[in-house]
């Protein structure tokens, strides 16, 4: 990383900034004022990015800490500065307000917006108990418990202060109608995370709404503590409206201006109801309740739709919010009921409101998260097929490329711009490959060594804990001699994601005898590393996790110790980064076409690791005819695909057999033709890094936002837009949008 000149020249004090809402740390006052003034300028268009979860732990991407360490700044004589430094070097590194891919994608997206200097701010909720923490017991399976964390001690996170009473937290009043015409106002505090760019020259503020205040109603605190609390439907509904209902009050207090509200999934869609209510009152006056007609509501909705951009992330039915009409009437405004009757009706289930359907209806654009997902979504929502476009997901390359790999790229002259321009990997020439190959191989070996060391240390810890706690080690290998544990250099396959049934984590264990025979026949050892969480209420998902644990010993014994399967509990972003850079291949085997995108495999590809995957989600675009990895399993057309998650429709036998057919050639390539294997790794750098990064993805979103940007920012967006077009043949359309944004 190139250290900011101003930071080195003027000292750490220049990293303190402030305004009427408090004092912050990480960027200069000049940078802070530039960003904030743009967001409050009523004459400038900005974007509000709304997400139920945002994953941005400072332990995997930490530009401020990197600058401080490289400059040798660890303490200060000024107490305030010293407090900030202590927090950055010794504070907790977790912000556990995410459950998995959706939240981590949101965090990666905002990091790229910051790197690209795009005027965006984000709004989410702060959950005092996070998602959940995971223990794993070999006999019981997953044991979930509340996460304990301290937002006030977490670097990059700041509680906003009241401008009139600086010693007091900023409090906003959020309206909830609860079946009445007059709203109940609920108080909430506001935290701000600074998502700071790699060069510390810009940031995106993420505002986290904190409802866990003393004296809050029980229905509020029940819903506010834990992300995706599913103890009751009413809690689920309340969480959604606590996000959507807080957006306008927060904008009013901050005086932020926005022409675009980007709904990252439908979770915050209740903001649409408040916007329509606001529009009706503005148009018809205070007595709008007596005057309004259905036609007035439709007209108001059409105006509101011009502000909404909607990204749909899943074809899985459970991912779409539906609530019974009766239940919602008890927590709603009578006008909201009328709006929902018109805009959120569900043709399949008439007695429920479908919030995905409402978000589909009220927007100026809809995008899926891969080309295949676009086709599936059009099949699911044919009424809106003409509006649904593809913007394929990416990942933040600066977050997910390991330090070892990054050091390699820094030493290659033609890749000197890789941090700001992921497209530079397209220029890898045969001469560059000769230079890069041994360095990449060495870095990969070191990342693999670190991962294997981490796993073996974990096995040792679990074995020692067995005599201290009631938890049985989750891994069979904890019970065998240490000389039979994992070894670096052994072919290592990684699988880590949410344990949902359609993701079929246990697919490759469908026929352990056949899998073992493949390893024994050729004397090929393989490490299988699994990680991930099942939602606490997802009993089928927890059963799949338990099957992974139950099959470890059989695989080890049948394969004569060649097949070693380990489950890593407590999956988080730090474990994810170790895995995607330390494994030799990434496994992904959902039932096609239920994986909308999948981003874990992209993170592996960022490090050169090939994927072994079903042709679903992003892999349809990232496979490149086999140059970057392998495919297996069902590959039929979307029109004939079965979207059911029923156990008898998951194609276990067929797709597992296809994996076993493929595995020998993969292992032979790794063990006997290492040059061919490295060629696939280099192809991932050349073909997939330029496409599956959030810089490119952010550029595609910016072209939907119609923002007026500084010329140098617009030039950067235009260059990134040329890397890849998710929506085929859309280049002319994008040019038109850019011209409209810059008349």
Average pLDDT reading: 93
CATH architecture field of the largest domain: 3-Layer(aba) Sandwich
Poorly predicted runs: 1-9, 731-743
Q: Count structural domains.
A: 3
Please, what is the CATH homologous superfamily of the largest domain?
Answer: Glycogen Phosphorylase B
CATH topology of the largest domain: Rossmann fold
Descriptive notes:
The chain has three domains: 264 residues, 3-Layer(aba) Sandwich (Rossmann fold); 286 residues, 3-Layer(aba) Sandwich (Rossmann fold); 46 residues, no CATH class. 42% of the residues lie in helices and 15% in strands. The strands form five sheets. Strands 3, 4, 7, 8, 9, 10, 11, 12, 15 and 16 form a ten-stranded mixed β-sheet that branches. A six-stranded parallel β-sheet has the order 19-18-17-20-21-22, sandwiched between helices. The chain has a two-stranded antiparallel ribbon with strand order 1-2. A hairpin with a 2-residue loop joins strand 1 and strand 2. The chain is α/β, with parallel strands linked by helices and 743 residues long. The chain starts with a helix and ends with a helix. The N terminus and C terminus are likely disordered. It is built from 29 helices and 22 strands.
């Amino acid at each position: 990383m190139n250290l900011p000149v101003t930071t080195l020249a003027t000292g750490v004090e220049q990293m303190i900034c402030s305004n009427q809402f408090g004092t912050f740390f990480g960027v200069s006052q000049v940078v802070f004022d530039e960003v904030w003034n743009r967001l409050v300028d009523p004459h400038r268009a900005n974007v509000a990015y709304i997400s139920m979860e945002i994953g941005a732990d400072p332990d995997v991407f930490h530009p401020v800490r990197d600058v401080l360490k490289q400059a040798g700044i660890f303490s200060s004589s000024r107490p305030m500065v010293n407090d900030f430094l202590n927090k950055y070097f010794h504070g907790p590194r977790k912000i556990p307000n995410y459950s998995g891919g959706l939240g981590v994608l949101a965090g990666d997206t905002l990091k790229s917006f910051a790197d690209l200097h795009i005027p965006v701010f984000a709004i989410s909720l702060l959950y005092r108990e996070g998602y959940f923490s995971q223990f794993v017991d070999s006999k019981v399976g997953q044991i979930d418990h509340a996460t304990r964390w301290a937002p006030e001690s977490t670097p990059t996170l700041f509680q906003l202060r009241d401008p009139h009473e600086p010693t007091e937290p900023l409090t906003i009043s959020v309206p909830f109608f609860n079946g009445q015409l007059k709203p109940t106002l609920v108080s909430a505090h506001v935290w701000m995370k600074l998502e700071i760019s790699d060069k510390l020259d810009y940031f995106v503020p993420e505002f986290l709404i904190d409802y866990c205040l003393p004296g809050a109603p029980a229905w509020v605190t029940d819903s506010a503590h834990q992300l995706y609390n599913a103890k009751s439907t009413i809690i689920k509904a309340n969480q959604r409206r606590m996000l959507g209902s807080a957006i306008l009050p927060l904008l009013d207090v901050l005086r932020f201006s926005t022409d675009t509200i980007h709904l990252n999934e439908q979770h915050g869609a209740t903001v649409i109801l408040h916007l329509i209510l606001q529009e009706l009152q503005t148009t018809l006056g205070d007595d709008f309740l007596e005057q309004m007609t259905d036609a007035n509501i439709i007209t108001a909705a059409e105006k509101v739709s011009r502000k909404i951009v909607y990204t749909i992330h899943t074809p899985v039915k459970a991912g779409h919010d539906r609530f019974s009409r009766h239940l919602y009437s008890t927590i709603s405004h009578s006008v909201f009921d009328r709006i929902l009757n018109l805009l959120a009706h569900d043709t399949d289930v008439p007695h429920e409101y479908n919030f995905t359907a409402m978000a589909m209806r009220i927007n100026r654009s809809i995008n899926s998260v891969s080309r295949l997902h676009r086709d599936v979504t059009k099949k699911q929502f044919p009424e809106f097929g003409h509006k649904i476009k593809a913007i394929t997901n990416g990942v933040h390359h600066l977050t997910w490329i390991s330090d070892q790999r990054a050091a390699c790229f820094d030493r290659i002259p033609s890749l000197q711009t890789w941090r700001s321009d992921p497209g530079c990997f397209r220029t890898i020439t045969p001469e560059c490959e000769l230079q890069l190959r041994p360095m990449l191989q060495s870095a990969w070996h070191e990342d693999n060594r670190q991962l294997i060391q981490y796993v073996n240390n974990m096995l040792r810890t679990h074995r020692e804990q067995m005599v201290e706690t009631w938890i049985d080690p989750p891994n069979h290998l904890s019970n065998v001699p240490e000389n039979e544990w994992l070894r670096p250099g052994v072919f290592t396959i990684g699988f880590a994601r949410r344990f949902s049934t359609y993701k079929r984590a246990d697919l490759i264990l469908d026929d352990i005898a056949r899998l073992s025979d493949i390893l024994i026949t050729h004397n090929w050892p393989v490490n299988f590393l699994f990680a991930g969480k099942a939602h606490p209420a997802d009993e089928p998902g927890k059963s799949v996790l338990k099957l992974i644990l139950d099959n470890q010993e059989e695989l080890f014994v049948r394969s004569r110790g060649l097949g070693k399967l380990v489950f890593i509990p407590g999956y988080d972003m730090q474990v994810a980064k170790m895995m995607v850079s330390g494994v030799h291949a990434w496994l992904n085997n959902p039932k096609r076409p239920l994986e909308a995108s999948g981003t874990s495999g992209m993170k592996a590809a960022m490090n050169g690791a090939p994927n072994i995957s079903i042709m679903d989600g992003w892999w349809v675009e990232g496979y490149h005819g086999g140059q970057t990895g392998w495919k297996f399993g069902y590959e039929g057309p979307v029109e004939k695909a079965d979207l059911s998650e029923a156990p008898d429709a998951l194609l276990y036998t067929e797709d597992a057999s296809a994996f076993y057919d493929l595995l020998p050639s993969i292992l032979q390539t790794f063990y006997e033709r290492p040059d061919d294997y490295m060629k696939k790794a280099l192809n991932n750098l050349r073909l997939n890094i330029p496409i599956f990064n959030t810089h490119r993805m952010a550029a595609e979103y910016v072209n939907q936002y119609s923002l007026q940007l500084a010329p140098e920012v617009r030039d950067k967006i235009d260059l990134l837009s040329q890397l890849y077009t998710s929506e085929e043949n859309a280049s002319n359309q994008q040019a038109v949008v850019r011209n409209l944004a810059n008349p």
